[in-house]
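Worked example 2:
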Amino acid sequence: MSVRTDDFGTTPDSGTAAVTVPETPRRHHWALGWLVVIILAALVSILLRAFVVQTFFVPTGSMLPTLQPNDRILVQKLAFSLPRGAIVVFEHPKRDLEGPLNEDLVKRIIGLPGETIWSEGNTVYIDGKPLAEPWLPKGTPLGQPISKQTIPPGEYFMMGDNRSDSYDSRDWGPIPRSTIIGRVFLVVWRNGHPAFTIP
């Protein structure tokens, strides 16, 4: 004779005999659910880091005062624009023989593809016109001059904001668009504290 339990765990005819429901299947189901959630969260995190947003560490002062050493920055890696003045992270240029060759760099876009760029004194010229640089403190010295050159198609001329202490396109030339990893859109950590400032 089979026994059916109702919602109260007793037989419907006697009302006295309790039937215990095994807990093991419930525990397995609960653990499996959390395992799936953890795996999905890890996959989403990996995909976001690979294709959408990634954090980077600023190791030097070449972008002072905009970015400071030890800043943590967020970089947009999907569907970003590259206007003049944008701060970007890019792969180490092949022509740059300074520093670790596998280290990504962060600089500002100064010259765009097809433009002719050079400098006189502390002024940068683009196609014969002086470049307004509102991102720099007034009176920032240029340091190493820019030799007159036309930026090749699909390449960008990069410079650090700390002009007199930046190793950049003045040394290793413009960089290809294909080497740009993404555009910096937020500083999230500065001086040992959360920052959340737009550079």
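The mean pLDDT is 84. The chain has two helices and twelve strands.
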